[in-house]
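Suppose a colleague, Dr. K., hands you the sequence of a protein chain of 350 amino acids and asks what its three-dimensional shape might be. Before reaching for any lab equipment, you can write down a predicted structure in token form. Begin with the sequence itself:
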Amino acid sequence: MRPPARYEPLVEVTQPKGTGEAHPLLSPDDAFADFEIIDASNLSGSEPKQPEMLKTEYAREALKLGLAEETRIGTNPFKFGMIGSTDAHNAIPSTREENWFGKAYIVEPSPHRRDGVLIESQVAPEYSIYDIDLGASGLAAVWATGNTREAIWDAMKRREVYATTGSRLRVQVFGGWDFAEDEVSRPDFARQGYARGVPMGGDLFAGPEGASPTFMVRALRDPDGANLDRIQIVKGWLDAEGTPQERIWDIACAGREIEAGHCAGDVGSTVDIADASWTNTIGAAVLGGHWQDPEFDPAARAFYYVRVIEIPSPRWTAYDAKFFAIEMPEGTPMTVQDRAYTSPIWFTPG
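The predicted structure, expressed as tokens, is then:
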């Protein structure tokens, strides 16, 4: 069992050895769940991964389990915020795809990195972790009241943090009971959010009778990075039988309408893999979204977090292939849609 949340308020949800937000076998309706996942075996490569192991290894599943545990024991041991980390062992903690110096000295740029092995399995080659499996991730973002150790520590303790998979995009979300759609674009967006709601990492308690939670979100791309594709709300809750459920809504889409809770079509791609380049002629530099839960049950525990997806851009493997004039092994991912995951906002019935 995990330590009480007050001792361990944050979870690293992305780093070079893989992203642990969600898994396609656990979230088959999530089109973006299959992102930089390393799941062939355990960390040492001595045992193959079994499907039944996955439910205890991904953050979204833990958040849902926390709701069930709160019902059972009266407290939620999995009430955590989400951050990313470089986990670099070579003192060069770069997360940029075009300048990724690897997780360790043995994964630093070279023409041979395409064939490198970070952790070699003694059982079977397919259980090894290869250099090309690694992702150029991640970063921890903190909404602190000041640039001091004390302020940053306090923000982490209250879980007002989010993870990115390497880019420096900005995301802010507030949950409340009466946010209006036009408030997303107001200059006092944050002031109203703090005054009448709670930020990421916070708790919503019972609101006015008949009301359902409203959320307002702003996202801004990395100034040197890719435009944004969409903003999503990920909800988890317990149904009437106490079984954890999940659903994802698109709440803002660059250049498309939202139809039945989802963006109408893909954003497209401008990536030239051979040239390791892309353009920001698609997507949006800034996205904002307002969303009201259409399926809210005031008697059901729930959590909500925001996921922001960028447009496709070249993966570090594409940059290596161009720079060293080499071909990558067949099946190597050459593009990436970097993203951010905010800490949840929890709803607890009164």
